[in-house]
Design brief:
There is one protein chain. The protein is of the alpha+beta class and 359 residues long. It folds into three domains: 95 residues; 70 residues, Helix Hairpins (Orthogonal Bundle), CATH 1.10.287.130; 147 residues, 2-Layer Sandwich (Heat Shock Protein 90). Strands 2-4-5-7-6 form a five-stranded mixed sheet. α2 crosses α3, α4 runs parallel beside α5 and α6 packs parallel to α12. The longest helix is centred in the middle third of the chain and has 55 residues. It is elongated. About 3% of the residues have low confidence.
Length: 359
Amino acid sequence: MRCFCVNALISVFIVTCLYLFLWKQRLGDVIVTILEYILNIGHEEAFLIYHEYFRGYKEVFFATATIFVFCLLLWRLFRWMSRYFREINQGIDILLADDGEQIQLSPEMQPFEHKLNAVKQTLEQRKADAALATQRKDDLVMYLAHDIRTPLTSVIGYLNLLEEAPDMPVEQRVKHLHITLEKAYRLEKMINEFFEITRYNSRQIKLSKEPVNLCFMLVQLSDELSPVFSHRGNSIVLDVDEDLTVCGDADKLARVFGNILKNAAAYSYPKTQITISAEKSNNRIYISFQNKGASIPSKELSALFDKFYRLDEARISDTGGTGLGLAIAKEIILLHGGNIQAFSEKDTITFLVELPTAD
């Protein structure tokens, strides 16, 4: 646009100069002198020729000048446009290239430059997200195969023992059957949780929201899980207002808090307290679950809510959870319009749950 205006001003200037210096007789004497010299004629005859053929056809000269200037302007405009088209084409080539090079265009093309760079960043982010999704899918398949294989191998092993020893003592047979049944239940639980997290991801779960007394729910959960905590000498300290309520699905929120507490029980130091506190701020309720345990590296901390993720010491054991508890908890909280985060510092692990109030 700026180049077009400049060319238009130049054209006006040229035509104005032609008018002032040619048709206002500023150059008339020069033209008459040239005619005298070229045609070898007198001054009066040369002036008549100038007057008849130059001044008498000034409309033709002005039309010619206008057409000439217009063609020059059009040529310059096309040249300007083709240059910027070439720049845009080069920018698109850089956009499609698999590198981190930034697109740089002329100052007049800065809006296009910003948009092309934004598109390039978006494409690079999508490529990274796709690679991460593929990696997580591969990890999910690997972890699922690992976790299913362990109890399944035990079930097959004990069933083979029972089949190969039909005269096995009754007491030993009952023991093997009990272990086999426990492994089968564990396998069933893992498969059910796998299908459950799939349903949450596809948003097939419907919530039945209602006001829920948070203090009452956490007290009830603490009582139900007291055998789990007492096994290692842990205890729960509850600091929640009795009138504090949240808006949500009671059963599913109980599932979330239960999963967090079970995780705290599994990774707390023996004979330490697990503190539960809650506060209300700006129509949001923040529930904190804090326990003393080995600090979690930031890399592992960010993966706690990933599917089938378990800390290394739990992964190598077939008695650990499926690694879906916290992933399911996160999906439930997100469905409630809330958020869940984990923090770890100086042997203190904190899970912070954010939920809307019942107001």
